[in-house]
Amino acid sequence: MHRDRTTTGSPSALRRGACPTLAAPMQTGDGLLARLRPASGFFTVDAFLALLDAADAFGSGRLDITARGNLQIRGLRAESVAPLSAAIAGAGIMPCEGIAVEMPPLAGLDPSEVANSRPLARELADRIGDSGLHLAPKLAIIVDGGGRLHLDGVTADIKLVAQAASGQPLWHLLVGGQQTGLAGTGDEMIEAAMSVVGRIAACGPAARARDLPADRLPSSSSSLVKRDIAMSPVGRFDLGTHVVLGVAPTFGQMEAQAVRQLVLAAMAGGLSEVRLAPGRALLFVGPAGRETSALALLAKALGFVVEADDPALRIDACAGQRGCASARIDTHAVAEHLIAHAPALMDGSLDLHVSGCAKGCARPRAADLTLVAAFCDGQPGLGIVVGGRAGDSPVATKRLEDGACAITALGQWVAETIEKGESAAACLKRLGPARIAAAFSGARFNGIDHAGL
Ligand code: SF4
């Protein structure tokens, strides 16, 4: 017997009588945090309302949507985890257990996808579950049939990507982000993916694709055609049979009370399903033709991002001092200062990260620029990391009271230095870390807004 471990498809584990459990909650600065991905890939609005009630009753009422599209329930205590699990089960939500096989959030709905990812993802998840292999809990596996919200921008240890060949989907295998040159039917690529899963397991229970010896991988050939960048999940999508409105909580964090208002309004407007999307978005799905402009206006009034070009979507920021006891800076204030006072950095070409401590919860991978709590001359400060993670050494630090000025100065310097037609990313690359550090820590503060963070 196996459980449904996919992130979409029918909740077959419910039918099989499996016992739903939340993945082991993690300790954070504001208590325990439970991460939830529904095995069905979506929530009914009724189930989502029940989940929000449970987050309020058993947690702090604060929730996050992660960059990969997982839901995090914050502020739990050890004794509140079991009643939260029971409430989630009572709402008919089956959490995805074991190794999740992720797929595009509009899988099965989007007429522009090359293939519906669901059947293949379910098959692969079941094969992995039945294999008995000991795999790293964070092993990331994606089945991507394409479409508007394809997952090219999401990293994975193993990826199956569909592209059309003579009108039929041809599935390509990627391992550790690299093409393997292997492509074939869905059945053939399940076998190929399982072979890689087995080789990863043979490297140890914590192994990832990066641990595979290079000579154990098939040789690469560039058979995969580069796709257009995926659309932002924020906005309205008319998909033929369905309409979707995507909104994003600012910096991925939201209060259950605010989301409840939004879900009730979506329900009243005939939208019956909630999905989560990579890019920290909340998707409301309903039948084609439903009006969504009033819902978008309400979302905006409640502080959600409703436009795909909103600069807040360009910044990964953790809860910071507004929700985490480990934080030493107000990450949201830093991010808002970046948006308001350093517009030259907000052209969309840069990956920006603001972190309340070196742990870097909001973005485990490197960013072009990371602003992180640091110490400067033994005092609380703000550091800037270039091309690295929150835990890497900053190229410069400023005392916290000078942090706002340093961000403004860096933005002004880029605005003055950037060449015609050049992006901010290209400009910073041309100038290099030493000059970025000089601009951030320099004495160019005359006439610059000194508003604190
Ligand atoms: S990175 Fe942010 S959310 Fe994570 S522990 Fe540090 S301050 Fe808290």
UniProtKB/TrEMBL annotation:
EC number: 1.14.13.83
Domain Nitrite/Sulfite reductase ferredoxin-like: 25-89
Disordered: annotated segments: 1-22
One protein family per Pfam: NIR_SIR_ferr
Domain of life: Bacteria
Molecular function via GO: 4 iron, 4 sulfur cluster binding; heme binding; metal ion binding; precorrin-3B synthase activity
Entries under NCBIfam families matching the protein: CobG (TIGR02435)
Protein name per UniProt: Precorrin-3B synthase
Keywords: 4Fe-4S, Heme, Iron, Iron-sulfur, Metal-binding, Oxidoreductase
InterPro entries assigned: Cbl_synth_CobG-like (IPR012798), NIR_SIR_4Fe-4S (IPR051329), NiRdtase/SiRdtase_haem-b_fer (IPR005117), Nit/Sulf_reduc_fer-like_dom_sf (IPR036136), NO2/SO3_Rdtase_4Fe4S_sf (IPR045854), NO2/SO3_Rdtase_FeS/sirohaem_BS (IPR006066)
Protein's organism: Ferranicluibacter rubi
